[in-house]
Amino acid sequence: MVRIGINLLGLNFENPLLLASGINDKVPEQWIRAHEEGAGGVVTKSIGIEPRDGYDNPTIVELPCGLINAMGLPNPGWRGFLEMVEGYTFDFPLIVSIFGGTPEEFAFLAEKLSDVADAFELNLSCPHAKGYGMEIGQKPENVYEVVKAVKDATDRPVVAKLTPNIDDITKLGLAAEKAGADAVSAINTLKAIAIDVYAKRPVLSNRVGGYSGPGVKPVALRAVYDLAKALDIPVIGIGGITTWEDAVEFLLAGASALQIGTAVSLRGWGVFREISEGLRRYLRDEGFSSVEEIVGLALEE
Ligand code: RRO
């Protein structure tokens, strides 16, 4: 018998595959759909203090090996978020992603949303938002201050989502761990650009955006590997996971759970079931009885 359910952050997930914060998770219907299609949990689109419309179109450009997006943090603000989830109950863990410009803003959001969040993911890593994301999260001392402020503001578990746009991501992970984070997640998107050769200007209205999908997978895998080696807290792997083999690679590299975003856009909601079934078969065929047994096996020297 193979068990693919996991316990992480004190929460039970039916399997280690979560819908990533990104471009398919703005409303409860999408979270419920993800779970119906086989996701073990959901991370929401990042929520801030004030509502934001996001950037003008085009906000996404498709490339041969992934997407570049600059959505621009569209969200209904914390009040709108509370209105949006009113009346819903979710039979899967709901991790609410939050973003702010200061530790105080992050802490404020965590306090306001604690009743509806099973855990928080802190967006310290959006690659193209003025005053937010990686503009804050590239500095270990800022990561420390934000995590600490949120830990003081809520009893909910806290996950710090880290940027790969830095020389050594473990510096950020160690700062998050020192501040009391319950886990880190990596990676957010790689800062990137695409140019329209006929318009002779960048394709996206924001010009620069974040690259995700199969093209970033090896970079993400290396980040997870480095973090898992350096940290004692769990690492949640994100970045181009599209097949069950990708999922197994991330688990072997030390990820305790996985997030999937771009694959939903490129391949459809069926990726969750495809990957969890492949993972179950792999564990059975290789003689394992749980996901936990393979986490970090590739770290051994
Ligand atoms: O909304 C976005 O444009 C966005 C965010 Br918040 C993020 O964290 N990462 C990304 O690639 N896009």
Give a structural overview.
The structure is a single chain. The chain is α/β, with parallel strands linked by helices and about 300 residues long. The chain has helices at about 30-35, 75-85, 105-115, 135, 140-155, 170-180, 215-230, 245-250, 260-265, 270-285; strands spanning about 5-10, 10-15, 15-20, 40-45, 60-65, 65-70, 95-100, 120-125, 160, 185, 190-195, 195, 200, 210, 235-240, 255-260. The structure holds ligand RRO. The site of ligand RRO has 14 residues, from loops.
Write the layout of secondary structure elements.
Elements: E1 6-8, E2 11-13, E3 17-19, H1 28-36, E4 41-43, E5 60-63, E6 66-69, H2 77-85, E7 94-98, H3 103-113, E8 119-123, H4 134-137, H5 140-153, E9 158-161, H6 169-178, E10 183-186, E11 190-193, E12 195-196, E13 201-202, E14 208-212, H7 217-230, E15 235-238, H8 244-252, E16 255-260, H9 262-267, H10 271-285
Parallel strand pairs: 3-4, 3-16, 4-7, 7-8, 8-9, 9-10, 10-15, 15-16
Antiparallel strand pairs: 1-2, 5-6, 6-14, 11-14, 12-13
The structure holds ligand RRO.
Shape: globular
Strand count:
16
Provide the CATH top-level class. Answer: Alpha Beta
The figure for the number of domains is 1
**CATH architecture annotation name:** Alpha-Beta Barrel
**What is the averaged pLDDT score?**
97
Total count of helical runs of at least 4 residues: 10
What about the largest sheet? 8 strands, parallel, barrel
Would you give the CATH topology?
A: TIM Barrel
Bound ligands: ligand RRO
Unreliable residue stretches:
none
Across the major sheet, the strand order is 3-4-7-8-9-10-15-16
Helix content: 25-40%
